[in-house]
Amino acid sequence: MTAIVTTDLAKRYAEVNALDGVTLALEEHRIHGLLGRNGAGKTTLMKLLTGQVFASSGSMEVLGGDPVENVDVLSQTAFIQESQKYPDTFRPIDVLRIAAGAYPKWDQAYADRLVERFQLPTKRLIKKLSRGQLSGIGIVVGLASRAPLTFFDEPYLGLDAVARRMFYDELLHDFAEHPRTVVLSTHHIDEVANLLEHVVILDQGKVLLDADTDELHDAALTVSGRADDVDAFLAGREPLEHTRLGSLATATLAARDGDERAAREAGLDISPVSLQALFVHLTTANASATDPATPVATA
Ligand SMILES: Nc1ncnc2c1ncn2[C@@H]1O[C@H](COP(=O)(O)OP(=O)(O)OP(=O)(O)O)[C@@H](O)[C@H]1O
């Protein structure tokens, strides 16, 4: 089943088209990566899908319904945001108590284990917590809610590398035991690349890439070797990246059938292109092809 369908979805603010004609279908029970440079429209898309802002045009279906003021859909949805605000008097224990009442599939024993693992001081005022501890609250809520649809919008801010690793491990482990649909927005692309089954890259409000990660591994390749051999291999083709160092060269290019064999025969080394490298190539190429911000057409 498809968990999320959007058709030509757009969100216009006064001066920007934050989202511009987004058409997507996200399968249920998968971990989807929502990637994009700053201001690409990731948070805006997640806010639309959780009914927090209204679309300017287009349509969407989330878990089979319109999310706007729809308790059936929203009770099955968790949206974890780094910028979550809490009342001044709140302690983590208050947030966890509210979450326990709000999410039908809440697992208190799992929440307790996560609190311990992330060393969350549950009785300290939230306003006194460190940034990493604040992120920890969101992660505990996002995981222990076991919501059929969970959005994590850069949930790691302030978390150190060890705690981020713990989050990825927990997500993967719990996802395997309790499959659900996860949409994860992050700038730490290499760290999450192995978790993602499907990736959407937004750029300037539009979908730049919408693909399964399996397909991406075959989408591009990097060849390296003697500069003359690399040049001969590239003949007539436009590489995504090409660097020369003395008599050696490296080139990354969109893959075609037979490339690997031809590169091997030419004596070149072949390496796969990481998701992070592909992301940088695609968004950089798009930036030079378009304006940085899409101006709103005035009527
Ligand atoms: N309430 C708002 N009013 C006006 N413009 C907004 C508003 N919210 C978002 N925008 C603009 O919409 C665009 C998309 O913003 P959004 O927060 O969705 O990006 P993002 O991909 O989540 O970025 P980041 O990775 O930096 O968090 C940006 O240009 C942003 O300035």
Topology summary:
Layout (H helix, E strand, L loop, with lengths): L1 E11 L4 E11 L3 E6 L5 H8 L7 E6 L8 H4 L2 E5 L10 H11 L5 H10 L13 H14 L4 E5 L7 H17 L3 E5 L3 H4 L5 E6 L2 E7 H5 L2 E7 H8 L6 E5 L2 E7 L4 H7 L3 E4 L2 H15 L10
Parallel strand pairs: 3-7, 3-8, 5-6, 6-7
Antiparallel strand pairs: 1-2, 1-4, 8-9, 10-12, 10-13, 11-12
Helix pairs in contact: 4-5
The structure holds adenosine-5'-triphosphate.
Adenosine-5'-triphosphate binds next to α1.
List keywords for this structure.
299 residues, alpha/beta, Rossmann fold, Alpha-Beta Plaits, 2 domains, six-stranded mixed beta sheet, binds adenosine-5'-triphosphate, nucleotide-binding, ATP hydrolysis activity, P-loop_NTPase, ABC_transporter-like_ATP-bd, ATP-binding
How would you describe the overall organization of this protein?
This protein folds into 2 domains: about 1-205, P-loop containing nucleotide triphosphate hydrolases (Rossmann fold, 3-Layer(aba) Sandwich), CATH 3.40.50; about 215-290, 2-Layer Sandwich (Alpha-Beta Plaits), CATH 3.30.70. It is about 35% helix and about 30% strand. It is built from 11 helices and 13 strands. The strands form 3 sheets. Strands 5-6-7-3-8-9 form a 6-stranded mixed β-sheet, sandwiched between helices. Helix 4 (about 110-115) runs antiparallel to helix 5. The radius of gyration is 22 Å and the shape is globular. Adenosine-5'-triphosphate (ATP) binds near residues 16, 18, 41, 42 and 43.
